[in-house]
Structures
1.
Amino acid sequence: MLAALGIESVDDLFADIPAALRASSLELPEPEPELELAGRLRELAGRNRTDLVSFLGAGVYRHWSPPTVDQLLLRGEWYTAYTPYQPEVSQGTLQSIYEYQSLMAELIGLDVVSASHYDGAAATAEAGLMTCRATRRERVLVSRGVHPHYRATLRAYFGGGLELEEIPLVRDGESAGTTDLAALGSMLADADRPVAGVIAANPDFLGLLEPMPRIAELAHDAGALFVAVIEPVSLAVLAPPGAYGADIAAGEGQPLGIAPQYGGPYLGILASTDALVRQIPGRLVGMTTDLDGKRAFVMTLRAREQDIRRDKAASNICTNQALLALAASIYLATVGPHGLRDVAATGAARASELETALAAIGVERLHRGPYLNEFAVRVPDARSIHRRLIERGFLAGLVLADAEPDDPSLADALLLCATELTTQGDIARFVAALQEVLTGRPSVGVETGAGDTATPIGATR
Amino acid sequence: MSAPSDLRYTRDHEWIKVDGDEATVGITQYAAEQLGDIVFVELPDSGRDLEVAKPFGVVESVKAVSDLYAPISGAVTSTNDALAKEPELVNSDPYGAGWMIKLTIADPTQIDDLLDGSAYDDLVAAG
């Protein structure tokens, strides 16, 4: 083969890549027998702490996933992350993507949903770029209430010359922890630097509900588009982006039947109004009729995409997470609208119970505004408390200083989350353990057996 | 069919028609045939300053998307709003109802640099 190619070694195939960019060596261990390797992988996997009672959310949420989700995903016909090449032959795959788009459009209240992106951060960054293309402006404002990882991804996408600025959060009072509307107003008023888009999250990273209609209004008054970063389960009980004037919605689809997994793969949701359909990146599946008048599914608006438009494509950092989009579709179809409302409402109820139980031992919320199922609390020496609770079998949410090191108002604070999987027994034992860690004394009078049953979803249907 | 002799042409297959101190721009019949059924035309807002040879819009067919390049520099005075509802006018009447923009003429000497009808026919014939 080498002789046929007229080269002497496989390395010659890579001669066009500058030497400085090539890996000099791969430090791989020696080959191992399969049995030994399996044992070692088991040992590595065993280091994961899956036994902890978790109050961690911060962008990734634990939910009950009906067995139908994983069982149906095991079918070989579905096993691809991609849209098939020669897609119209694969009507089943296209139909599943179309159904994903339809379910999401109904949940979000916008006209168009793409066939999915890498994750919520990538979808949010694409939304930012969409606002620049649509308005021919080059400045985007993102609230500091948007997840710090999403903001980091936005910075990476905007590094090529577009401007990205952060809107501060309100520091004190009733609205503390939400987007500072006065600051937003003055940033939008700079006539020499017109704003393409404003990005805010609901709930925000700190779990608080944002004044989305007001932010949308401010953005639109300045001729900018409004991007809502959403958590899909919350849309069963909160107003959807389409109801408060968002032009684009982006978010992480993991809570819809996809297990929390470190590093993904996850599911980026991206939706827009019909007016922006040619700016939305990624695959779109449409429904039509074939020559015989029968229903058929097609890839539509292909011409925006990179295989046709090359460097002018709507995105060249773009894929489809078809399998995970399917998981989300099966999840939504299984729990239904009532079930999804149960999931969201039960998480909110548990979080409220958690807040009350924490207040009873003197641990107070950091902010005063309304939240859904996640909130921040102030504790002395949060990092140490967090570590000592892990020793006691509890994952005490997120140490906020680790996520937002530059914000002094978030020092010594934990971000705690409850979902429908959080039991009342979990809450009682967690609060008791926290009290023990805070006071150095064992707590008394905690029931340890009661209230361990998670609410069955769909029970109130 | 040969290109109309009263128009000037770019090597990127746009035509331009001069009328006093204003010019009208579209794409040639050859370009429209090569693109196939045109489904969408994206045009600039009125008032935008165009620079010669820079993209000013996009034409999209079922199988391709192409940039539109300004034949000359000038400010857009109007655009063909009919193309929003009936982009197929570009296929059916590329030199008439399928026109795209009207603009001012910033520098008349730029028109002299463009191809005339027979030179454009030669370009198309040469493939």
Note: Residues 8-107 of chain B form a domain with the OB fold (Dihydrolipoamide Acetyltransferase, E2P) fold (CATH 2.40.50.100).
2.
Amino acid sequence: MEPLTYNLGDTGPNKETQQANRRAAVEDALRSHPGVREAAVALDGDHLVAFVVADSEFVDNVLGRAAAGSTIVSKWRKIFDLSQLSKQAATASVGFNTMGWDSSYTRSAIPDDEMHEWVENTVGDILRLKPVSLCEIGCGTGMLVMRIAPHCERYVAVDQSSAVLKRLKEQLGTAPDVAGRVEIVESQAAQLDRFGENTFDTLVLSSVVQFFPNVGYLSKVLENAIKMVRPGGHIYVGDVRSLPLLPAFATSVELFQAAEELSASELRDRIHRRIEREPELALSPAYFLALPRGIPKVSRVDIRPLRGRADNEMTRFRYEAILHIGHDNAPVFDGEFVDWIERKWTVEDLRSLLRQKSKQAFGIRGILNARLEKDLAAMAILDGADAGLTAGTIRQKLEHDVYRGVHPQALFDLENENLGYRVFLSWTACRNDGSYDAFFLPKESLQGMALPAIHWPEPDSSAFLHHANAPGQGRICKELTDQLMAHCTQNLPPEFVPREIMLVDSLENAS
Amino acid sequence: MKGRADIHAFVQGLLDASGDDAPLVDSDSLLFSGRLQSIDAVEIVVFLEENFGIDFAQVGFDKERIDSVDAICALIESVAKSS
């Protein structure tokens, strides 16, 4: 390949033009590599930083992501098969087989009362979508099937693990009234092409997308799912691991597990390693929020923190995305949003406010999240930690801090106090501190709507740069950035070679 | 027939791949300690199926039974005795 030639720009009329020429030259060079779909270059001081959206086909076929992804899918299938071979799985109660639901903190099973709360809240959220004909992808042993199918005319339960489906069939054998409505399909999520367009009104992916090997696989599944759902229906993607909260999650788990004497620097290394080695897919809400732009059949997307009193890794670090399918003619509620940080309202303040508001809709932006406050404080301590700090001293400091956050469930509970308001919470803003926005709507203005359209505060443009992590793909990402750096070195003058090449998921809004 | 040394070497390889450079003692917990992740358990299972003919569908599966080199050796021994 002939080296590309460039106008170095130093003869340009001014510095701005020179810099623009430099950036354009690097972008051209990057785009000439087959692994690059889009490229943008920014100046960081005197240095260039390149943002690259990789070409999926190149990454899949040349760098081997497709094969690696297929291996990951097979591995998870094997894990779920194995989970049903234990003694506990054989004796689990009907509709409550929680094998595999282990806490990242204790590495033991998540307590039953917390799992019960999680499953009942998930069922409640799905039933609010009023499903009649429902398809659940990744149904497992049927925690949702056994609770939701009685409310549906048709429930198609899909899973890739034959051992898991065998267990589901055994459970359905004990409940013939439910079994009559349920069809079981053994299939990988991405190979589910047997159903025609507009077959279902509801499609559920609950606590399953974290086991997808990459965001490309998820997109393939969702593209098909969106076709399968008829206009007016919904896709419920639940228990999604939050990418913006991955650092807080890693900090929380590592601090919990650390021995008292572990130094702050070793703790930081462990947190970094946990994020790097994360085997599950974590997604930014921005991934879902961007869907309506690419797929017009998706009219809007709600991003919601989970309900729940228990503070565990599901309620603290995961969210649900609800995709509204087809034309949406619901009125948009567009009330004023007040910044929480300016008022620091407590739940008691809000209760008084709702009493005084005389049925006006209003919103609050950026409410400090009581579920995550301690983790954020730990991150702040670690950021500025001196050499003498240990995990033990950090935990002591955290015990003495004063916390002012508002628990999301405490706001949901206000709905049950005859204040006349429904409460809606959102993580649409994609903040990495887990703060959330709330909207209070007078009940009578809803006119029976379960999921009103609310004009939520928008995310910063930077939220759209990274949609997802790349579980198990560190080697592939490094190989691509190494290739691109070599390509730039070979084809550009030394002063044009970017200092850093960052792989991003989208350049949209990235300027 | 492979033995304890091969199992030790295999587990050591998994730890190396995950960036764990602490020494491996045969009694060390692998999965419950977090040194290996759940997804790594599959590597151990496949290794035991392929090299020791263990059929987990027959013998059942609990993480405790593959949580250390010692536990894996005990599992192999118990399967050999019962067959």
Note: The longest helix of chain B spans residues 38-52.
